[in-house]
Amino acid sequence: MALKIDIRKTLGAFSLEVAFEAGEETVALLGASGSGKSMTLRCVAGVEKPDRGQILLDGRTLFDSEKHVDLVPQKRRVGLMFQHYALFPQMTVLGNVMCGARRGFRGGDRKKRALEALEAFGIRALADLRPGQLSGGQQQRAALARMLISGPEILLLDEPFSALDAHLRFRMEQEMREVIRRFGKTVLLVSHDRDEVYRLADRVVILRDGHVERTGTRRQVFEDPGTRAAAALTGCKNLSGIRKLNDGEAYALEWGIPLRLRLKPDTEALGIRMHALRHGEGVNAFECRVEEVIENPFSFTVLLRPLEAPEGTRPIGWETDKATWTRVRGGTVRVCLPPEALLQLKG
Amino acid sequence: MDLYPLWNSLRIAAVSTGIIFFLGIFSAYYVARLPRALKGFLDVLLTLPLVLPPTVVGYLLLRILGPRRPIGALVLEHFGLRLTMTWASAIIATSVVIFPLMYRTCRGAFESFDESLAACGKTLGLSNSYIFWRIRMPGCRPGILAGTVLSFARALGEYGATSMIAGYTPGRTATISTTVYQLWRTNEDGLAFRWVLVNLGISFVVLLAVNMLEKRENRR
Question: In this structure, is residue A15 part of a structural domain?
């Protein structure tokens, strides 16, 4: 494995306890804010020091509390891209990228290399501007150029798109995909956006309150998040605790309906993604009252309450395309929760 | 009009600002990264001259530096230098009085510096001294400049501690502020007024310089 990390760190009431490995692939750290994602990245980069544990990169020890190894960030050869890019405001764009070139190239060569890097990112014309004069996307390109020219062995990307306007995100994500492909080594991506994570990452590590909740390939994690918190982080909005009736049936407490499915022994809760409900007849079909209809640009989100559900239960969200909703809309609709679409979760 | 007080005031202010420029920056930089308890204590100690009456500062300095006091006697014996009642003694007094101004403005500047810039510089492989001189200092430049000019202005106007430790000897230790007091006391009102005008003129120029510096910094 290219990166092996097993660290602990306590900061006031918060404690971080994270262990995972990553090969030459993109691993996403997915978690709510305050779950320890950024802290983990900063520990790998060496700008934050864990209390205990070890961090290995390609067999090099970056940190080992028992052997008293704590490499300074300058010697770790990690590329850390900050959420707001941390471009040096008093320097020009070229000056910024030349800073990244100081480690690897001799004086005369730095400017040439930096200009080549700017060229590669299509921002050579902006070389003499200051970071404050650039758009968000241009700032990100400058930060990427500066990071890559420093010759990192691993890329650490902290919420790379969160500072960008929505319309820029898609484009920068394409560029990032290309950067990652050419880099070809380990990339750690911190994000709280499940779509971004699914599109960019090979594997996913879900963090919650400073510990690893679930790891796996992105498919495994999205198809079987394992826990309620992980399911919520992967974007599952319908969640309910259950009471087991028998091996093939459970009563969903928050939804107030019995559901048929082949229950695993340790299932404590169920989840169903909003788009996974189906209109019409089938197993687990219920006649539901339409509580609220929310129009999205290209779909409807319909909040449904099964007629048989007692008072005080929570509605189930159903996301459906506009054509379907226009065809079936009314005061009540019949939908089913297919057993194969139900996520079986712990806690 | 003998211009000696003007020249004396300017050189005292310039030398003490020069000393305090480095002392203020470095103590601010190091105190800003100390553990909290120690930081609080040192902060109080280093800011004290700002709130103490200058006469109290002067008194304390005399207690230490006077020719029969521990340090004063030591320096007099080994180097043959008197630390009080010379024009250079005023440098000590003004330095102590203006130190908190420089220290506090610099500390404010260092504390509002975006630490992720320094962290980022480290991951890029930049040396700590490169980061300090090329990234941190330029980022804190407006605060440091403001502190320097304010310190200089305050040093020019120092009266209390200076008059106690350097006294008033025309042509030797007289500064603008001590001269104004002495002239007023001896009923030479006309001359006193001319020195007041000189002082007003200098202060006006200094404050104008501060404003212009600020404007230029904002444009960058």
Answer: yes
The yes-or-no verdict on residue B103 having pLDDT over 90 is yes
Torsion of Cα atoms, B196 then B201 then B207 then B208, to 10°: 160
* CATH architecture classification, B4-219: Orthogonal Bundle (1.10)
- DSSP label at residue A342: P
Domain count, chain A: 2
Question: What DSSP designation does A156 have?
Answer: E
Q: Taking phi first (over 0 means left), then psi (-120 to 50 degrees means alpha), and beta for anything else, what does residue A214 get?
A: beta
Task: Residue A20: name the closest of A196, A221, A177, A159 by CA.
Answer: A221
Residue B199 makes CB contacts below 8 A (sequence gap 6+) with: B156, B157, B176, B177, B180
- Cα dihedral sign, A286-A290-A292-A293: positive
Judge: A90–B122 Cβ closer than 8 Å, yes or no.
Answer: no
| ipTM rounded to 2 decimals | 0.86
pTM of the model: 0.83
Q: Which helix (H) or strand (E) holds A154?
A: strand A154-158
CA dihedral A2, A113, A101, A75 (to 10 degrees): 30
What is the interface size between A and B, counted as CB pairs within 8 Å?
61
Contact B117 A88 (CB under 8 A): yes
With tokens 């950024």, the residue in question is A38
CA-based nearest residue to B112, from B92, B83, B71, B142: B142
Q: Is A302 helix (H, G, I), strand (E, B) or coil?
A: strand
Report CB contact under 8 Å: A90, B121. no
Q: Are A135 and A89 within one domain?
A: yes
> Which residue ranges make up each domain of chain B?
4-219
A33 contact B CB<8A: no
A97 lies in the same domain as A54? yes
Do A213 and A243 lie in one domain? The reply is no
CB count within 10 Å of CB B52 equals 18
CB neighbour list of residue B30: distance below 8 Å, 6 or more residues apart: none
Structural domain for A244, as ranges: 236-345
* Gap from B135 CA to chain A (nearest CA, Å): 7
User: Are A149 and A295 members of one domain?
Assistant: no
Tell me: the pLDDT tens digits for B16-47?
999 999 999 999 988 888 888 898 899 999 99
